[in-house]
C-alpha cells in the first residue's frame, strides 16, 4: 500500500458519491498519527456541499493558472534531463486536469491546525509535523478502501478567502487540501524515483 498510494487526478470518479461513513473511518485512522506534545491541534473540514466545492475549485483553478506559468511548475522542471522531463510533463498534464475539475470532486478534505498567536518565525517543521503525517495517514486509509486522493496545496494562495467561505477561525491555518473520490482502474504501481544512493548520506553529507 505504501508503494502504490499515488496522487490520483485523472482517475477520480466525479460522479460516484462517497459515503461519509467511509471518510470518517479514514479520519479516525488519521487521528492515530503522531503529534508534537500530544497537542492534537488538528481540525478536519470535510466539504461535500456543491456550492462550496465549486467555490474552492474556482480558487484552486486561479492559483493553478499562475503556478502553471511559473518556472517552478512541475512541467518546467528537469527540462535538461530527457527521461525526467517526460515524467514531469505527465504530472503537469494530470495536475491541469484536476485543477479544471477540483470543484467537481465529491469530497474535499482540508487538514488544518490551531496556531495560537500566529505562525512561528523560522523553521516551522515542528508545527506542520504535527499535522501532515495525519493527512498522509488519511490518504493511506483512503487507498485501502478504494478511494483515490491527491496532495494539493495551491488553494493556500487564497487561504483567507477560503477561511471566510468555510467559517474557519483566525487562529486555525490550513495545511493541505485532499480531493477524495472513488478511483477508476487498478494499475497503481511504485513510482520511478531517484536511486537511494543518490540521496542517502551516512554520518555526514
From TrEMBL:
SUPFAM superfamilies: FMN-dependent nitroreductase-like (SSF55469)
Annotated Nitroreductase domain residues: 4-172
Pfam families membership: Nitroreductase (PF00881)
CDD domains (alphabetical): Nitro_FMN_reductase (cd02062)
InterPro entries: Nitroreductase, Nitroreductase-like
Transmembrane among keywords: no
Keywords of this entry: Oxidoreductase
Keyword Oxidoreductase: yes
Family of the protein in this entry: Belongs to the nitroreductase family.
Name by which UniProt lists this protein: Nitroreductase family protein
Species the sequence originates in: Nonomuraea antimicrobica
Amino acid at each position: 500500500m505504501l508503494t502504490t498510494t499515488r496522487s490520483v487526478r485523472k482517475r477520480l470518479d466525479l460522479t460516484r458519491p462517497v459515503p461519509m461513513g467511509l471518510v470518517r473511518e479514514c479520519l479516525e485512522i488519521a487521528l492515530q498519527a503522531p503529534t508534537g506534545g500530544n497537542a492534537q491541534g488538528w481540525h478536519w473540514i470535510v466539504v461535500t456541499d456543491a456550492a462550496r466545492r465549486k467555490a474552492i475549485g474556482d480558487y484552486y483553478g486561479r492559483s493553478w493558472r499562475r503556478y502553471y506559468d511559473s518556472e517552478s511548475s512541475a512541467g518546467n522542471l528537469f527540462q535538461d534531463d530527457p527521461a525526467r522531463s517526460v515524467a514531469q510533463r505527465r504530472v503537469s498534464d494530470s495536475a491541469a486536469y484536476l485543477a479544471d475539475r477540483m470543484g467537481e470532486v465529491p469530497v474535499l478534505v482540508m487538514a488544518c491546525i490551531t496556531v495560537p498567536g500566529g505562525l512561528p518565525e523560522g523553521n516551522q517543521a515542528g508545527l506542520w509535523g504535527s499535522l501532515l503525517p495525519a493527512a498522509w495517514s488519511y490518504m493511506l486509509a483512503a487507498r485501502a478502501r478504494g478511494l483515490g486522493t491527491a496532495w494539493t496545496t495551491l488553494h493556500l494562495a487564497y487561504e483567507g478567502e477560503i477561511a471566510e467561505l468555510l467559517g474557519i477561525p483566525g487562529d486555525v491555518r490550513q495545511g493541505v487540501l485532499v480531493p477524495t473520490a472513488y478511483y477508476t482502474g487498478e494499475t497503481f504501481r511504485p513510482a520511478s524515483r531517484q536511486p537511494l544512493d543518490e540521496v542517502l548520506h551516512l554520518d555526514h553529507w
